Amino acid sequence: MYEKVDVLVIGGGIAGAIAALEVSKSYSVMMISKDRVMGGASIQASGGMAIPGIAGEDLSVFVEDTLKGGEYINDRSLVKIFAEEGASYITYLEELGMVFDQDKEGKYRIYKRTEGHSAMRNYNDRRGCHEVGRVFKEKLVKSNVKLMEHTMVYDMKSVDGRIAACSAYSLKDGKIIHIAPKAVIMASGGYGRIYSVSDMSTGLTGECHGMALDCGAELMDMEMVQFIPLAFPFPEGMRGAFIGMCSIHGPDVRLYNSLGERFMERYQPDRKEYATRDQVARAIFTEIRDGRGTERGGVIVDTTNNDKSLLPRYKASTAAVYSALARVFGEKAANWEEPFEAAPSQHFCMGGIKIDGDCRTACKNLFAAGEITGGIHGANRLGGNALTEVTVFGKLAGKSVCKEVAEADWAKESDLEQYFAEQDAMVKDLFVKKGGVSGTQIKKALGEIMWECGGIVRNQEMIEKGLAQLAELKKEAETMHAEEGDIWNYSLVEALEVKHMLKVSEAVLLSASMRKESRGSHYREDYPAKDEAYMSNMVIVQKEGKLVCEKRPIIL
User: Fold this and answer.
1) Which of 282, 364, 410, 480 is the most buried (most CB within 10 A)?
2) For residue 492, what is the DSSP state?
3) Rounded Cα–Cα distance for residues 511 and 454 (Å)
4) pLDDT digits 0-9 by tens, 286-310
5) From the CA atom positions of the chain, what is the Rg in Å?
6) 431: which residues sit within 8 A by CB, 6+ positions away?
7) Beta carbons of 101 and 110 less than 8 angstroms apart
8) Coiled coil located at which positions (predicted)?
């Protein structure tokens, strides 16, 4: 048995929600979320919402800021759309029913200029993104969108360059679900959980990137992975969780190593702790790697020199971060009265599925929006641009897919039945295998490989070591098994994730190997300078089952 639907939306965040609501005006739509709807990366964002033109500047200024931040390897056409549509971002959200934090005069209360922006264009609501999540969840529940939470799409079949069928596992019901869509929108976020240390939601393991490759889509700039400078190094349950950048902890933050040295004076003598997030993350990583970190694997973040009268404003703009600091390190640390410890963590993925100006991929009926895509941010993302991106391109993907569905039909029955039977057999086989490795074991080993070989500081020797270790892990994964059980079987989920995680990790390392320079978030200690010969995009394609990295010129 399988279910037909006009459009399948994969992802339960803002991009997926907007896309699904747009499609539901005209067509049937199913929205599948690996987590609960609005439970993933969207509501975790702490950098505010960048609103192009809100400070009175021409939109070209926002475009230039975004291109400059991305080291000019961004897709110019996408950045232009981003600026033009993002200018009405906050108005659009208010029309949906969102009530933003305003003062008595009706002005938005908190604006700030985050790293890389040349104007005060980042709006911060004191409730973080919970208001956004609340409104979208309410809209979805009242709509005719069929919601399937705690469900993982793990495989897709394409026929003649079009997605014909998908298979998913519902944790809640313990069932394998088969779907035949006319078109698919992927809006499932990044691939950060291929790293052992990440502040991303645990479900962001990149399976949609892997499935997109299987169906003929391309990935671009997968080496461009952003690492945040400050995250919790402990306790284990919070390792990697977001603390942020020095800029959200006051105007006079100082970083010290275990020797008491203010080490940013060596790395960035001018801007010190307020250098770009990739520069600060790299410096902290190097101090820890070279043995100058604390006993618990971090550095010292000293906020005690800040002007205490400014504390309420900083707390208001990132309340969740200060609350977490108080829980782990105590109230004094959250009140700028005591230092605390921090270490870098994987934070965002600039690379992803290659799309055009209609959010269309190289697979005819596959569209993508949000962090899962590449091209918008280039080599580095500016703070606040992520939330604007998911709104702009979620809406665009929804509109574009409607044009596709209007002229499309479902795949032939003969193309579906055999595929669905194969998927049922594959899952049963995972339960039958005994004595092999588990998905948990593979994922743990993979995370450590990627942190060491494809993380903050890279070189050719480590990249090649990582690729060799991935090849060995692939062989081990052939014996992988899952524990039997129907509902909430995380052993099965992890086994289904592994194939795609291995593929995405290989894509990251192949791209990192091809880019023999340092640019933005990609740092090669064997090629520490920027090289204009690499003013290019690294594009991953799958040919006869193998990944190939192609160096393609920037389209101006």
Assistant:
1) 282
2) H
3) 10
4) 999 999 999 999 999 999 999 999 9
5) 23
6) 481, 482, 483, 484
7) yes
8) 456-483
Taking each continuous run of H as one helix and of E as one strand, the counts in the chain are 16, 19
In our burial notation (b when 16+ CB lie closer than 10 A, e otherwise), range 61-85 reads bbbebbbebbbbbbbbebbebbbeb
**Which of the 8 DSSP states describes residue 544?**
T
Residue 43 makes CB contacts below 8 A (sequence gap 6+) with 13, 128, 129, 130, 132, 133
* Residue 343 phi, psi dihedral angles, 5° rounding: -145, 160
Residues 487-527 pLDDT 10s: 999 999 999 999 999 999 999 999 999 999 999 999 999 99
CA angle 451, 457, 458 (to 5 degrees): 85
User: CA 172 → CA 205, 264, 327, 463, 548, distances in Å?
Assistant: 20, 48, 32, 39, 38
Q: Look at the chain and count its residues.
A: 556
Alpha carbon distance 118, 55 (integer Å): 10
Q: How many other β-carbons are positioned within 10 Å of the β-carbon of residue 144?
A: 12
Distances (CA, A) of 132 to 31, 90, 99, 100, 435: 18, 11, 9, 9, 46
Q: Name the pLDDT band for 137 (thresholds 50, 70, 90).
A: confident
Active site residues: 277
* Domains contained in the chain, CATH given: 228-347 (3.90.700.10), 431-553 (1.20.58.100)
Asked if 492 and 430 count as a contact pair (C-beta separation under 8 A), the reply is yes
Fill in the amino acid letter for 276: T
**Cβ-based neighbour number of residue 384 at 10 Å:** 25
Read off the pLDDT of residues 310-365 as tens digits, 9 standing for 90 and up.
999 899 878 889 999 999 999 999 999 999 999 999 999 999 999 999 999 999 99
The token pair at 495 is 């086994």
Q: How far apart are CA 467 and CA 532, in angstroms?
A: 26
Q: How far apart are CA 202 and CA 308, in angstroms?
A: 36
Q: Judge if the upstream peptide bond of residue 235 is cis by omega within 30 degrees of 0.
A: yes
What pLDDT is attached to residue 46?
A: 53
Strands (E), 11-161: 29-32, 49-50, 111-112, 122-123, 146-148, 151-159
Residue 215 to residue 218: CA distance in whole angstroms: 9
pLDDT in tens, 47-91: 567 778 876 788 998 899 999 999 999 999 999 999 999 888 777
Q: If we measure between CA atoms, which residue out of 42, 110, 101, 108 comes closest to residue 314?
A: 110
> For residue 93, which of 395, 398, 396 has the smallest C-alpha distance?
395
Q: What is the crossing angle of helices 59-69 and 76-86, to 10°?
A: 140
- Output the pTM of the full model: 0.94
Give CA–CA dist 35/12, Å, rounded: 7
